[in-house]
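Retro notes (design track)

What went well: tokenization of the new backbones is finally stable.
What didn't: we kept losing track of which sequence belonged to which structure.
Fix going forward: every design gets posted as structure first, then sequence, in one message. First example under the new rule, 99 residues:
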């Protein structure tokens, strides 16, 4: 027996140690379940958000052109949509080249 292990001398002490061990195990299992649930929920939210973004992303270049044609400057558009200016300019150039 190592110095770290407690010496159990009675059945009552053994029962207490086993009870404490089971409680630690159950607590650890509960924490793992909570983390797994949390991870699964985060994954589901992320997957859903990504799918929604993919739908929006298809129409974004056309919308950027419409907004520009309505009088907005690319710098304003970038700020409005939380995009980089270079992205807005690139998408506008691509759409202009297509037309």
């Amino acid at each position: 027996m190592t110095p770290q292990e407690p010496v159990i001398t009675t059945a009552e002490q053994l029962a207490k140690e086993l009870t404490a061990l089971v409680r630690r195990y159950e607590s650890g299992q509960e924490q793992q379940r909570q983390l797994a649930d949390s991870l699964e929920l985060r994954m589901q939210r992320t997957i859903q958000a990504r799918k929604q973004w993919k739908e929006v992303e298809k129409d974004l270049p056309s919308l950027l052109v419409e907004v520009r044609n309505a009088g907005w400057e690319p710098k304003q558009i970038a700020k409005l949509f939380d995009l980089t200016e270079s992205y807005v300019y690139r998408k506008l150039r691509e759409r202009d080249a297509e037309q």
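Added context from the reviewer: The chain has one domain: 11-98.
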